[in-house]
Amino acid sequence: MALVFQYGSNTLESEMNSAARLNQRAHFVAIAETVENYVLVFDVFSKSADRNCATSNIIPTREQKKVWGVLYEVPDDLISRQTVPPGSRSLDAIEGENKNHRRHCIRVRKQTGEEVYALTYVTLRPKKQLKRKTTLKYAQLIIQGLREHNVPVAYIKQVKGIIAAHSPRLAKVISSI
């Protein structure tokens, strides 16, 4: 089993385990925060039919900031396109490995204080200014997933602020969810 850190729409378990994604094969382990300093941004555009918007990424920062997310155990054969069983999708395919994202190993800290290494995905070619913004649907998936797993409320508020700054047209509605 691979330990995978998700910080975007896949924080919502029903999204991660949907029939179109990992089909109930990912198992929640814990919530965790990055050990190193990272910040959540929306600097990549997803052309996939279910997205068609700016999507999330994490980037290193010198500021004392952490990104919270969800740790899942994912069967090893569901990580790579080369090992995925027929009729299933790999996490690499879902995340756009070598297209929009690359697999990356990151150190995260569980709420218990235990530090572990996990796979995550980061943007290959981040863009400082995206003309296309994120959508309410995508933003709601992130917020719902963070809430579902009881990520600290202060971090959820921070994420709402990041979304509002990136997509000002969503500011009012995001603040109310």
Could you give a short description of this structure?
This protein has 177 residues and is of the alpha+beta class. It contains five helices and seven strands; from the N terminus they run βαββββαββααα.
Question: Which helices and strands occur, and which strands form pairs?
Answer:
Layout: E1 2-6, H1 13-16, E2 27-34, E3 38-46, E4 53-60, E5 68-74, H2 91-95, E6 101-110, E7 115-123, H3 136-148, H4 153-166, H5 171-175
Antiparallel strand pairs: 1-5, 2-5, 2-6, 3-4, 6-7
Helix pairs in contact: 3-4
Mean pLDDT: 93
Task: Name the strands of the widest sheet in spatial order.
Answer: 1-5-2-6-7
Topology as H/E string?
Answer: EHEEEEHEEHHH
CATH domain class name: Alpha Beta
Distance between the termini: 34 Å
Structural features, described:
- The structure is a single chain.
- This protein has helices at 13-16, 91-95, 136-148, 153-166, 171-175; strands at residues 2-6, 27-34, 38-46, 53-60, 68-74, 101-110, 115-123.
- The protein has one domain: Hypothetical upf0131 protein ytfp (Roll), CATH 3.10.490.10.
- Helices cover 23% and strands 32% of the residues.
- The protein is built from 5 helices and 7 strands; from the N terminus they run βαββββαββααα.
- The protein has a 5-stranded antiparallel β-sheet, with no helix packed on it. A two-stranded antiparallel ribbon has the order 3-4.
- The protein is globular.
